[in-house]
Structure formats: structure tokens, C-alpha cells
Amino acid sequence: MSEPYTDERLPGGLRTGQQYLDAIAKDGRRVFVDGDEVGDVTAHPAFAETARTMASLFDISSDPANRDLMTYTSPTTGKPVNRIWQLPTSVDELRQRRGAIQRWAEESFGFMGRTPDHVAGFFAGYAAAPEVLARDGNEKFADNAVKIYEFLRDNDVYIAYTIVPPQIDRSKPAHQQNPPDLYAGVVEERDDGVIIKGAQMLGTGAVFADYIHLSSIHPLRPGDENHAVSLIVPANAPGVKIHSRRSYSGAASSIFDYPLASRFDETDALVVYDNVFVPWEHIFVYKDTELCRDQWFETPAHILGNNQAQIRFVTKLKFLTGLAKRITEMNGVWPIPPVQGSIAEIAVQSAMYEGLLEAQIANAKPNANGIYIPDAQTHYAAMVLQSKIYPELLNMIRDLAGGGMIQLPSSVADFDNPEAGEDIRRYVQSPDVPAEDRVKLLKLAWDAVGSEFAGRHDQYEKFYAGAPFIVKQRFLWNFDFETPDRLIDKALSGYDMTGRR
Q1: Structurally, what CATH architecture does the domain formed by 301-486 represent?
Q2: Sequence-ordered list of residues with C-beta below 8 angstroms from that of 390, at least 6 positions apart, any chain
Q3: Better-predicted residue by pLDDT, 194 or 201
Q4: What's the rounded Cα separation, in Å, for the pair 424 and 409?
Q5: In the CATH hierarchy, which fold is given to the domain comprising 3-297?
Q6: Residue ranges matching CATH 2.40.110.10 in the chain
């Protein structure tokens, strides 16, 4: 493979968790949090536990015992590669892909949305329809997209993305911002590549990624051509600066007190591209506003990437259903019919959403290249439903838990104080459930529905795919109105003015 498609940090083939950690530790990436620049994200308190969780995913996929579940054979190297990169050529292969993604999602109970399998789906989508990227004489860039996909796949790369501009002045297009290089875009063109300057968000997982995909999913207007690009950049490239939001993991007092936030906070970041050099070989959309939009929706990229998100969300819904049931069992109210009715409402939402996931896979059809794509109508219906049901489920769990989630010991250390520990064990308990177990469960519940980490997830599930009205528009674009229109026409044609009584 040519020089632009090699990386000395990557050994080639499936990686173990330790190989992944070694690749991102002290590799020169510039990450900022709490006023400090982080020298090693695998050791810093803000990121270390999540880095270990990410590493566990690589251990799962590289474990020979999981070979059939997690891998398939690379058509270019003949070696096993992660199934998250698979271009499914049948419904069965789509289901196999789901199995691998679901296995990873269970490691974080669905609370990590931007693990390596998410953006992998987008690049698989590009490789599934390179003819879209080749339009208007762009064959070279389309060829780049396929080679980049193969490089990412065959080297087990974790790539995140930044595809949303900063919220500076949304009333103006990119090129009318002041100055015009606030949104990331091309500021200089050279024989060997381009220089990128500006910022982009939301770099969820960028702190932990090997590479970052820079593009824009927001509509671009005439004049925005410098920002109409799609390219990849190493996370440690000179000029890349990753500004993390507050780390919920770093703020967690212990895993016992914050069992989700301490281990599964993938963080979100503003990524600044400060005169970053990008070789031509790493670019696959260049100064083309129409193609920058169509890369998402005319290829299968948006559906394959968000199919991963929906597989992950099903796992999260099942976790929340189990959490609600366990709380009512502990409190002794599970046998009460109205309580069971509330649990049923939660379980129905989970089952309904999983049904949409099953339907989009079962009704998948091949594109012109023989790659099976989940059914768009059911896919976008699920996406609309996702932002609606998540806050509703959180409120149902709050109702079922009552004040129990609030009146909890300040930390696990309270159990070590003789006087405080004695009081807690006496008064914070349930029948057949000692205080330690009751507090453990309710701390888990609070971290899922009430903590700062939980609040971020409430916001995330509402907006990860865009503003709700945009998601609804995408659903309408893919809804089959033929039958509804036919039924209305049939109804109207069945009578006229002479039908009056």
C-alpha cells in the first residue's frame, strides 16, 4: 500500500486492547481538559477508565474464541478483520454484522454510542457505492474513498468524526462567518495536498480515536466550497487540537458511586484544525457542496452508520427495562398490577423499537453493487422514535424509583465510617436486600437517569442524528406514500356530488 495509507502506530490486522492503548498513548496528540494539556490519554484520570473500556472491545474482536462472531475475511489481505467493516451481501450477513455490533454494545450496556463501529458504518457505506463519489469526473476521489476504507478495515482503525460546525452564527453560511475560516475548511492548496484551518464538532470519541473524519453533514450553500470536503486526519497530526468537555469519568468519586460515568464516558470535543496538512490521498470529497451532501444520503453511509446506533440503542433499552424491573422487585412492589403496567409500557417501547430494527434488516435490499442495505423507511421511523421514547422511559423509571435514588449515601466511603455505616445498614435496606446491594442498584439507576452523565445521554439520544425536525424530514423522504395516496384516491373516486342524501 502506498505511503499515505500506512501508519507506524498500527501493526496491521486485528489489534488487541493493549496494542490499541499503545497506539494512542503518548503519540503526540494534543488533548486539553480542565485547563491542562494531557500527555497520555490512557493514563489521565479524565480518560483512563474509558480508554480501558475501548481496549476491551479490541480484546473481544481479536479473541480467537470470538472469530466467527466478530470477524470475517478481508478480500484484500485474506486475514480476519472486524465485522464492523463488512459490506453485507445478504440479509444473513447483515444479521451477522448486527451480532458483532451488539456484542460490543453489551460491554457498555448501550451507553457508548461512538465506539469504533459507528463511523466504520459510514465508510462501509462509501465503499458500497463509490460511483456516487465518482460523479462529475471525481473518479480519483472515489478511488481514494475505497482505499481509505480498506486501510481502516485492514488495520483495525478507530476513526471518529467531526461533521457539525461550531454554533457561532447559524444564521449565516460557512463562508460568511467572520472570519471565514471559523468553520473547518481548505485555506491553501498545494501540489501534495491541502491545508485545513478552522474548527468542527461534536468530536465524540475523538480523544480515543486513531483518526478523525472531517466533513459536514449540515447543508452547505454556494460560496461554501472550501468547507465542502470529506477527508481523514490522524488524531495526532500536527495542528490538530482536541478540546474535551468536562469529563464525567474524571469527576466520578468511584466506580461504585458512578458505575456508568466512570467507565463509559466517551467524551465530546471541539476539534480545532490549526493549519493541518492533508495529503490528496486522504481526501474523497473536495470543494463540492452537492457531493458533500450526497455522500451521506445517496450512498448507504447514513443508514449503515446509524444502523449501528440503533443496534446499540436496543441494548440500552433492554438495560433500562431490566433496571426498572429490578428496582420494583427490590422495593417489593413488583406484584402490584399498576406497577407491572408501568413496566409493561417500558418493555413495549423496547420490543417495538427492536421490531423496527428487525424489520429494516429483514426487508433489506441490495443496491446496484449487490450490497444489502437496511430498509430506509423502517430505519428512519426508528430514528424518529428514538428521540421521542428515551426521555419518556427515563421519566417512567424516575416514577418507579421515587425518592430512593436521591436519598443515598454520599459515597461508598460512608460504609467505612462505623457510625454512618451502622445507620445506613439499618435504614437504607429492603426486604432480603442488604444496604450495600440496595445502594449499589440505586447508584446505578441514578447514573442512568439522573446524574450529569445521564443528562448528557438524554440530550445525546435527542440530537445525535440531528434536530428532531430534520430526522422527521428524512423519514418523510423515505416513506412510501404510494399506498396512502392510492387509498385516498380510491375513497374520493367512490362518490361524487350525486351521492348526497
Answers
A1: Up-down Bundle (1.20)
A2: 457, 458, 461, 462
A3: 194
A4: 8
A5: Butyryl-CoA Dehydrogenase, subunit A; domain 2 (2.40.110)
A6: 3-297
Q: What is the C-alpha to C-alpha distance for residues 123 and 101, in angstroms, rounded to an integer?
A: 15
Beta bridge partners of 469: none
Side chain identity at residue 270, one-letter code: L
The pTM score is: 0.91
- Angle, helix 435-449 to helix 301-331, in steps of 10 degrees: 150
Kindly report, residue by residue over 469-493, the tens digit of the pLDDT.
676 777 777 778 788 888 888 887 8
Grid coordinates representing 14 are 486485528
Contact 474, 383 (CB under 8 A): yes
Angstrom distance (rounded) from CA 387 to CA 306: 13
Contact (CB, 8 A) for 336 and 368: no
Domain(s) labelled CATH 1.20.140.10 in the chain stretch across 301-486
Report the distance separating Cα 110 and Cα 118, nearest Å.
12
Give the residues across from 257 on adjacent strands: none
Q: Which residue has the cell 399498576?
A: 338
Please return the burial class of 365, using the count of CB atoms within 10 Å of its CB with bins 0-12, 13-18 and 19+: exposed
pLDDT per position as a tens digit, 23-39: 999 899 999 999 999 98
